Amino acid sequence: MNEQQLENARELARERRAEVGRTQQAVVTAHTQKMKRKKVITEDIILSVDNLHVSFKTYGGNVHAVRGVSFALRKGETLAIVGESGCGKSVTSNAIMGLIPQPPGRILDGKVMFKDVNLTNMTKKELRKIQGVDISMIFQDPMTALNPTLTIGEQLMEGVLTHTKASKAEAKEKALAMLRLVGIPNPQERLKQYPHQFSGGMRQRIVIAIALICEPELLIADEPTTALDVTIQAQILELFEEIQAKTGVSIVLITHDLGVVAKIADRIAVMYAGKIIELGTKREIFYTPQHPYTQGLLNSVPRLDLIAEELQPIEGTPPDLFAPPTGCAFTARCPFAMEVCEHVHPDTTVKTATHRVDCWLQDERAQAFLEIAQK
Whose CA, among 112, 179, 272, 335, lies 20 to 30 Å from 52? Predict the structure, then answer.
């Protein structure tokens, strides 16, 4: 190797080292920006649900699907509503969105306040003005949430053209921006494609883009990761976190997957037989659960540190909501049930400023209430 070749080799090595350095710096910068971009939760209440009751008329009688649900959501916060199938999670989310079919469904009592507006008093025409604009929803199955006869671009642009005064060109630019935001590669080409040309994870990203394209303040996500494999689930959850940090959107997350909850929730509402039986921060629910049902849910989750031990399922079945029990609905399945539990529904016991539970085990007045019930 002559002197010139040696110098060329050294120059090439220097360029490669510089390129590696630039790449490492880019990775560090991106990581730093991601760490800095944390979501901001304010004390402003954006959604308030108060004593919500929803029933459905069937041939077998009235099903009392939601029985006195109450909670509040702050701006920028993620509240997860968890519970087994049939507990009333999705009915609650549909009631918030004004999507309860009437008949057979009916909101018997309570109110849903979005900022200063009572959604339960609004007509269908009035609700349509805020659905998809101020409040948006991601439905359970991304495979069926999209129209197979329309391109992705048409479905994205529809909301913008319907709810704003944007031109088609402006709507297209907005659609392209949303596809970039949710991580769809080659958005210009993808805009022309149909739903069947996308994978399940990509379809879910598109559903999220459609829900967010009009920049809603409140997003309701009903089982957004149910039909996806674990790897895609993780990507979608990271996407939720990034979008919330960028936009400040408040999220009500409906799920039965406690792994999803542990990843992105700030607070958790545990629902059973149409009622919220425990509400607290993520740390309070996971580390100091107070209701036996919450404890049962956590015990039934597989854990790597207890791989040799059997899972502990919750024995029994949920109560019949055609004729809900007068006392605690979990009594028949509860290993700690007392006589008072069967006759009187427990009042809410406030454990901390952020943690509340409906359980006689936490109420010092249990014996007094039992004596009153027996009289």
Answer: 335
Tokens encoding 89: 């999670």
Q: Is the pLDDT of residue 322 over 60?
A: yes
Q: What is the pLDDT of residues 251-293, one digit of tens each?
A: 999 988 888 888 889 999 999 999 999 999 999 999 999 999 9
Q: Is 280 helix (H, G, I), strand (E, B) or coil?
A: strand
Q: What are residue 134's phi and psi, to 5 degrees?
A: -85, -35
H/E element holding 82? Answer: strand 78-82
What number of CA atoms fall less than 13 Å from residue 122's CA on the CB side? 22
Closest CA to 344 of 319, 368, 310: 368
Tokens 């580390």 belong to: 287
Distance CA 231, CA 200 (A): 12
DSSP state of 102: T
The answer to whether 226 touches 164, Cβ cutoff 8 Å, is: no
- Residue 72: strand pairing partners: 48
Q: What is the rounded distance in angstroms from the CA atom of residue 211 to the CA atom of residue 146?
A: 12
Q: How far is CA 90 from the centre of its chain?
A: 10
Domain ranges for the chain, please list them: 135-215
pTM: 0.81
Please choose, from the candidates 153, 158, 98, 154, the residue with its C-alpha nearest in 3D space to the C-alpha of residue 130. 98
Tell me how far CA of residue 57 lies from CA of 108, 131, 274, 349, 362, in angstroms: 12, 26, 16, 33, 35
What one-letter code names the amino acid at 169? A
In this structure, the chain runs to a length of 375
| CA atoms within 13 Å, Cβ hemisphere of 308 | 0
Q: Would you state the torsion angle of the CA atoms of residues 66, 72, 75, 78, taken in this order, to the nearest 10 degrees?
A: -60
- Quickly tell me which residue has 């590669």 as its tokens: 185
Using the predicted structure, report yes or no on whether residue 364 has a pLDDT greater than 90: no
Sheet holding 267-272, edge to edge: 135-138, 218-222, 250-255, 78-82, 267-272, 275-281, 356-357, 349-350
Nearest partner of 90 among 143, 139, 146, judged by Cα: 139
Q: Which amino acid is at 42?
A: T
Query: Residue 118: which residues within 8 A CB-CB, separation 6 or more?
Result: 111, 112
CA distances from 264 to 113, 251, 252, 272, 280 (A): 24, 10, 11, 22, 14
